[in-house]
Design a protein that fits this description.
Order of helices and strands: EHEHEHEHHEHEHEHHEHHHH
Strand order of the largest sheet: 1-2-3-4-5-6-7-8
Radius of gyration: 25 Å
Helix content: 40-55%
Bound molecules: phosphoenolpyruvate, manganese (II) ion
Shape: elongated
């Protein structure tokens, strides 16, 4: 496969810094689309985005303005001189978007999951030379992601990039809207040599507080660009309000992510710290949730032991458990003392909790 990287798309995109795509989640009104796009351009975006047809989980929520919004994107393009991109989910979207001068297409996560839909899009793109970005499927299946890229390549599309927007898995769902599973993005790079990946921290985190730390992580592992949702009035956005940022916040975010060599400004420093702290707070909350879940199981075990007259502490099981935890911690690079201390404390608490509830509920005669 000879996929062209973003720098070779012949679109005057930056050669020496990550590609920045920004703009609203959805085109809502002409005024909102134009103001959001102008704001994104001023903040430093190289490509403008807006959703025209929105794949929503629930019918009845805002499903996009449709074709009516495409002239607004044309207008945004004229006003800023920047290329524009919209999401397409079927052949009709492809034809309509191209007829309205859209420069780059992207395939959304809910479409990448469906090989029939991707094939329909690929067939509509035959003989058309337009760059296409492929979001990862909502489920953590890297082969499906690679398969969608291969379908496009097979019809002659060579300007292709991937977008990493996280996966809809339950693990870490309480921290991220779509947990990143970074390893899968790295695996895609192995499956499709030469593919560029654009991070989408907006849909990965789902909260504007996490944009900085997720963007940074993506760039650190070699992503070639970022797609960030920005809106002239994020709190009143018709879709994805919690994750969109104002043009001013977008400018600060990009400044602190991309110009780290220059002396950090106070506001961008606090931007970084704020984002890291927000992520730590959510991860800590996730630890508490896990401990609560664990405690519920300890309660079942206590009742079982009481019924079967099994002693609360079983030394063999405890030693084996600690050995496994230490080994797993070591494999993941954690400090041994930390892992030992945490599991010691958890075990002690579990034993005293079991004693407490079993003495409260004496075994039935
Ligand atoms: C979007 O980019 O607005 C969008 C719908 O994203 P995803 O396909 O990643 O959910
Ligand atoms: Mn969105």
């Amino acid at each position: 496969m000879d996929i062209k990287g973003i720098k070779d798309w012949g679109m005057n995109l930056p050669a020496d810094q990550p590609l920045i795509i920004a703009g609203p989640c959805s085109a809502e009104t002409e005024e909102q689309t134009l103001a959001s796009c102008r704001g994104a351009a001023k903040a430093g975006a190289h490509v403008l985005r807006a959703g025209i047809w929105k794949p929503r989980t629930n019918p009845g929520s805002f499903e996009g303005i449709g074709e009516e919004g495409l002239p607004w994107m044309q207008q945004a393009k004229r006003q800023t001189g920047l290329p524009v991109t919209v999401e397409v989910a079927n052949a009709h979207h492809v034809r309509t978007a191209m007829a309205h001068g859209v420069d780059i297409l992207w395939i959304g996560a809910r479409t990448t999951v469906n090989p029939f839909a991707v094939q329909e899009i690929a067939d509509a793109l035959k003989y058309h030379d337009i760059p296409v970005m492929v979001k990862n499927p909502i489920n953590p299946d890297v082969k499906l992601w690679a398969g969608a890229i291969k379908r496009l390549y097979a019809v002659g599309v060579t300007r292709i990039a991937a977008i990493h927007r996280g996966f809809n898995t339950l693990a870490q769902k309480d921290v991220y809207r779509n947990p990143p599973h970074w390893g899968l993005a790295l695996e895609l790079k192995k499956l499709i040599p030469g593919i560029n990946i654009i991070g989408d921290p907006s849909h990965t985190g789902g909260k504007r507080e996490l944009l900085w730390s997720i963007s940074k992580k993506g760039l650190d592992i070699g992503f070639e660009g970022l797609m960030i949702e920005s809106h002239i009035d994020p709190d009143n956005a018709w879709s994805d309000a919690a994750q969109q940022v104002t043009p001013v916040d977008l400018a600060h975010l990009l400044d602190s992510l991309l110009n780290s060599d220059t002396a950090p400004k106070t506001d961008s420093t606090s931007n970084e710290l704020h984002s890291w702290r927000a992520e730590i707070d959510l991860l800590d909350q996730s630890l508490i949730n896990l401990l609560t879940q664990r405690k519920e199981i300890v309660e079942q075990i206590a009742q079982f032991k009481q019924e079967k007259k099994i002693p609360i502490v079983q030394l063999g099981r405890w030693k084996e458990m600690m050995r496994k935890r230490l080994e797993s911690g070591q494999n993941q690079g954690l400090n041994e003392k930390l892992v030992e201390g945490i599991f010691d404390a958890i075990h002690q608490d579990s034993v005293s909790y079991q004693r407490e509830i079993t003495s409260q509920q004496p075994a039935e005669a």
